[in-house]
TrEMBL record:
UniProt-recorded name of the protein: Divalent metal cation transporter MntH
Compartment(s) of residence: Cell membrane; Membrane
UniProt function note: H(+)-stimulated, divalent metal cation uptake system.
Keyword NADP: no
GO biological process, alphabetically ordered: iron ion transmembrane transport
Bilayer topology: Multi-pass membrane protein
Chain segments annotated as transmembrane: 28-45, 57-85, 105-130, 136-156, 163-180, 213-232, 265-285, 305-325, 357-374, 386-407, 419-442
GO molecular function: cadmium ion transmembrane transporter activity; manganese ion transmembrane transporter activity; metal ion binding; symporter activity
Similarity comment: family membership: Belongs to the NRAMP family.
Keywords noted in UniProt: Cell membrane, Ion transport, Membrane, Symport, Transmembrane, Transmembrane helix, Transport
Length: 450
């Protein structure tokens, strides 16, 4: 029996027509959108605490870590876009061609765990945001997050273009809120520029009673390159419709997808920098060890004794709104990614609403358990974030290594194969990221056992 391979995310594949013979800006607009969906993974609630704590404890020191991590992410996402455009397969489908059925199932299970781990962070972020904004108990807030399945159903009725527009709007909201708060905080611009140059203090600095600068740097790096983003990008770039047999059209698609990706990831880079700068400007040297949770940050933004003249309930509310937007953003992309890896690795398809409901119900179980048995407090559920990073770190190599191998294969990519500098930088980044993530796993386990 001949097996016919289905298109990745068949519901949206090739649904957005690219106009022929238009100018650069009009074509770029037509190709723009997938980058926004990918950028969401680089500014989820898990990144927030790490970046703000890094600033609170070590001022601007770790800005260089955010820069390097973002550059690596840009390199890998460009490879993902190119893989999807040239081969017509997403990363899960392409990886399956390299391994046997049993291995594909194992890879699918590991990737699903990573998606669920990411989902837990979004549940926590959204529930805490609802608690801060409307005083809804965390346990009830976690349950309410199940209802966002209906949001996705409505959005899918309008097509992928509307989803891209909504996600970009939420990203812009987060960007504007934090840019506004950082401007009011009046940071030291010269110190910020200097901090983008890596310094040896990253490996040696340690504040009494807090995590070391190196440990926080590991957390920033581990949370930056998300494995599910690699699968997502390789699939959603195929939503554009053009003549895929035309070599010039394929070349143009890669070009515009690269520009879109880099622009959107630049937004996520800036937002993560703003988070760290906000933490450094407002909290460094002012009892930074007390700034470790979303609720504490919310309270501090209203505390004139801690923050100074800029403190206000409006700033605190904007912070909570941005947190809620971040959680909803990642919710949308998590469902799409889950469908991609399920179809790609095991050729199994579920309607979006079923996929969304199953993933969310699994994700809320550990959060509900912690809230119910250990107490309905933010500090309890936020401890789960440390565990979720372990799953993400484990899943990273099984997505990065096949990606680099596939895009560096002339047999599969033809004339669009990675150039030598890309291959060298890609493997170097892979070795560094995998090594650092192993270190993060070790140190996280040690921290949890201590």
């Amino acid at each position: 029996m001949r097996i016919v391979r289905k298109n990745s995310l068949e519901e949206i594949n090739g649904t957005i027509l690219i106009p022929a013979g238009r100018g650069f800006l009009k074509k770029l607009f037509a190709f723009s959108g997938p980058g926004a969906l990918v950028a969401v993974g680089y500014m989820d609630p898990g990144n927030w605490i790490t970046s703000i704590q890094g600033g609170a404890l070590y001022s601007y020191l770790l800005l260089s870590v955010i820069l390097i991590s973002s550059l690596i992410a840009m390199l890998l996402q460009v490879m993902c876009a190119k893989l999807g455009i040239v081969t017509g397969m997403d990363l899960a489908q392409a990886t399956k061609t390299l391994v046997g059925k049993r291995t594909a199932i194992a890879l699918w299970i590991t990737t699903e765990l990573a998606i669920i781990a990411t989902e837990i962070a979004e549940v926590i972020g959204s529930a805490i945001a609802l608690n801060l904004l409307f005083k809804i108990p965390l346990l009830l807030g976690v349950s309410i997050t199940v209802l966002d399945v209906f949001l996705l159903l409505v959005l899918m009725k309008f097509g992928i273009r509307k989803i891209e527009a909504l996600v970009f709007t939420l990203i812009a909201t987060i960007f504007i809120i934090f840019a506004y708060e950082v401007v009011l905080a009046n940071p030291n611009l010269l110190s910020i520029v200097h901090a983008f140059i890596p310094q040896s203090d990253i490996f040696t600095a340690h504040v009494s009673g807090g995590d070391s600068a190196f440990f926080i740097a590991l957390g920033i790096i581990g949370a930056t390159v998300m494995p599910h983003n690699l699968y997502l990008h390789s699939s959603i770039v195929q939503s554009r419709k053009y003549d895929r047999s035309d070599e010039q059209a394929v070349k143009d698609a890669i070009r515009y997808a690269t520009i879109d990706s880099n622009i959107q990831l630049s937004f996520s880079f800036i937002i993560n920098c703003l988070l760290l700068i906000l933490g450094a400007t407002l909290f460094f040297g002012k009892h930074p060890n007390e700034i470790g949770r979303f609720a504490q940050l919310y309270d501090v933004l209203q505390d004139h004794n801690m923050v100074g003249a800029i403190a206000s309930s409006t700033l605190a509310t904007l912070f909570a709104v941005a947190l809620l937007a971040s959680g909803q953003n990642a919710t949308i992309t998590g469902t799409l990614t889950g469908q991609i890896v399920m179809e790609g690795f095991i050729n199994f398809h579920l309607p979006f609403w079923q996929r969304r409901m199953i993933t969310r119900l699994i994700a809320i179980m550990p959060v509900v358990a912690c809230s119910y048995f250990l107490g309905d407090k933010g500090d309890v559920v936020e401890k789960l974030l440390a565990y979720t990073q372990v799953f993400l770190s484990i899943a990273l190599p099984i997505s990065m290594v096949p990606l680099l191998y596939l895009t560096s294969s002339r047999k599969r990519m033809g004339k669009f194969v990675n150039c030598r500098p890309f291959i060298i930088l890609g493997w170097l980044a892979t070795v560094i990221l995998v090594g650092l993530n192993i270190q993060l796993i070790i140190e996280t386990i040690q921290m949890l056992l201590s």
